[in-house]
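Hey team,

Sharing the tRNA (N6-threonylcarbamoyladenosine(37)-N6)-methyltransferase TrmO run so nobody has to redo it. Sequence (159 residues) first:
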Amino acid sequence: MENKFAVKQIGVICADCNGFRIELAPEYREALIGLDGFSYMNIFWWFDRCDNETDRSVLSEAKPYTKGPDTLGAFATRSPQRPNPIALSCAYITSINVDNGVIGLAYIDADDQSPVLDIKPYTPSLDRVEVPQVPAWCDHWPNNVESSGAFDWESEFNF
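Structure output:
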């Protein structure tokens, strides 16, 4: 079942004293045309600090969430330890500079200089589920990204 394919890094996430942003490589700046007008986007990025044989072999976690079950499979978590350390974040767009290839973000849960693989506009018709179902152990989590900022996430994790 092994396929060979290449994933190209298109930019980096910057999380520093100037805030959060994506800086695209010059050859991808043209791809920003038409993104203005969208308020949110989905960002696919690489958990590069977990790209090693040990982290890629973790298939389950012992009680990663305080109210979760004793064991969860990697695909039931958003842990960076997984077979392919691909991350997905939905972020609010604060600015877009096509000429410089910079997208300002209100926040992103990524480390500074994390590689960006792709971005897509958030569109409710394809990305929003009207009534999603989640397990009981996490049904008290916020119902949307806007409410997540005020939520006490620190009390939810065991890592």
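Residues 53-56 form the longest helix (4 residues).

Ping me if you want the raw files.
A.
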